[in-house]
Design a protein that fits this description.
Helix content: under 10%
Number of helices: 0
Radius of gyration: 21 Å
CATH class of the largest domain: Mainly Beta
Shape: globular
Oligomer: single chain
CATH topology of the largest domain: Neuraminidase
Largest sheet: 5 strands, antiparallel
Strand content: over 45%
Number of domains: 2
Strand order of the largest sheet: 1-36-35-32-33
Number of strands: 36
Distance between the termini: 11 Å
Length: 472
């Protein structure tokens, strides 16, 4: 057995280059409208190894069902459609979350009455478990299910009537979706609380939603510092008199990104605004306006990786709906000029984003064929850059690590009880490729090359990094 050398590093250089977006690929051909919800459902997800999973709903079997389609080669080719809900009643509004090769699916279904349902795939979307009912409610509340996962914990949110008003409801699983803890209401006001969006970073869970308690509509925020066990106060992020709608959130380490649409310009002229926190959601910087045009900019979606932040939306400035995109390579401080992604005389809408290494993936709806179908496009070098720590708050914790014949051995306290709650192995682009635990970690399936071990303290200090060379 031969150990390999580990070197501590203070930072990872972040270099980003750009390439043209590749041509669009049509994904659905069933002849029935394929639908994805416009706000906060994650309809595209990337598993370990660059596999992709897309979900939507359509009525090809006589009533709406949730369907899925996957790619095992980073979007080059796509497998046949799968009926993922497979229910004699209506199923709709799906959302995805991924941890390594496990895909978590939530959706709404009218199976013996309306409810929130869950399925999972432990093989990257090839096969799926039977459904689990997470909740029952009296009607199909508008809006989508939303979910996120970190390590073994799955977080699921939706809006449901609680008394006379809709409230944000939450459940979590601590064992990758096998069992579920009781339902918790995150909001308790006498107003509409709807359309939640969720993101996780280490043990911190970030939630934003649309709320009418103080005006026609605001974006509110709430966080949990202990993986969903307890929750902090509800925080109002916006305060103008116009309607604020469709907030969405993304998070990496201590940096939290929120975007929404705002009608302060009058009429139906929604524009997109952005706000960020650099301290895990404790405080927030002033808002930034990201769009300024004569159209109605609708339903932004965010994705983040390291200091790269991506936002996509659709608007009707040309007379029909088209997709647009901007990105930041410095954590949301500066943004590139907007880029029009679709160039049709029909309507393109409802984008969803996923990231794998250097590549940005997107699915969206378009009615160019006569009915609404799902399309896919990608930029293979649009997410180039490495993940680095943000705003260090305490000295880094160093891990001792060696590699012996495909095994990475970590010395240190248990992630669930000690001072290091989370460690991960990153590739050279900063993408997390493997969750790490104290003891032996099998890295034999990884391609030879340079990787980095990242660790973060429980008290939310900055991440520490160590370089690892994997050989065979």
């Amino acid at each position: 057995m031969r150990p390999f050398v580990l070197c501590s590093i203070c930072f990872i250089l972040n270099s980003v280059c750009f390439a043209q977006w590749e041509p669009e690929v049509r994904l659905t051909y069933a002849g029935k409208p394929a639908r994805i919800w416009a706000n906060n459902g994650w309809f595209l997800a990337a598993t370990a190894g660059g596999n992709l999973q897309a979900v939507w709903w359509e009525g090809r079997d006589g009533h709406p069902q949730v369907y899925g389609k996957r790619s095992t080669d980073c979007g080059v080719t796509w497998r046949p459609d799968q009926n993922l809900s497979n229910d004699p009643d209506t199923s709709l509004c799906p959302s995805l979350a991924v941890s390594d090769s496990t895909v978590h699916l939530v959706y709404k279904s009218n199976s013996n009455g309306w409810g929130a349902f869950y399925r999972r795939s432990t093989d990257g979307g090839a096969t799926w478990s039977t459904d689990t009912a997470l909740a029952r409610f009296s009607s199909a509340i508008g809006g989508c299910m939303t979910d996120a996962v970190w390590d073994a914990t799955v977080h699921v949110l939706w809006a449901v009537f609680h008394g006379a008003y809709t409230q944000v409801s939450y459940r979590r699983s601590l064992d990758r979706g096998i069992t579920w803890q009781p339902e918790v209401f995150l909001t308790h006001d006498s107003a509409r609380s709807e359309d939640p969006s969720v993101a996780v970073s280490e043990s911190v869970v970030h939630v934003v939603w649309f709320d009418t308690r103080n005006s026609a509509g605001d974006a509110y925020y709430e966080r949990s510092l202990d993986n969903g066990a307890t929750w902090g106060p509800e925080t109002r992020l916006t305060g103008d008199s116009a309607i604020v709608y469709a907030p969405t959130v993304a998070a990496v380490d201590s940096l939290v990104h929120v975007a929404w649409i705002d009608r302060r310009g009058g009429g139906y002229q929604f524009q997109i605004y952005y706000m960020r926190s650099t301290d895990w959601g404790a405080t927030w910087e002033p808002e930034v306006r990201l769009t300024d045009n004569s159209g109605a900019c609708l339903f932004p979606v965010l994705a983040a990786s390291g200091r790269n932040v991506h936002i996509a939306w659709y608007d009707d400035r040309t007379g029909n709906k088209q997709l647009y995109y901007r990105n930041s390579t410095d954590g949301g401080l500066d943004w590139t000029p907007e880029l029009r992604l679709t160039q049709t005389s029909t309507n393109s809408s409802n984008p969803a984003i996923a990231l794998t290494g250097d590549t940005i993936h997107m699915v969206f709806c378009d009615d160019r064929s006569g009915d609404t179908e799902l399309y896919y496009l990608r930029n293979p070098t649009g997410n180039v850059g490495t993940e680095e720590s943000l705003k260090p708050q305490a000295p880094s914790h160093k891990l001792a690590a060696t590699i012996v014949r495909g095994v990475l051995f970590l010395e240190g306290d248990c992630p669930r009880t000690g001072t290091v709650p989370k460690a991960a192995l990153l590739d050279i682009t900063g993408r997390r490729v493997l969750d790490l635990r104290p003891g032996a970690n099998d890295v034999g399936r990884l391609a030879p090359g340079v990787y980095f071990v990242r660790a973060v303290r429980r008290e939310l200090s900055a991440a520490s990094y160590q370089k690892v060379i994997v050989t065979r």
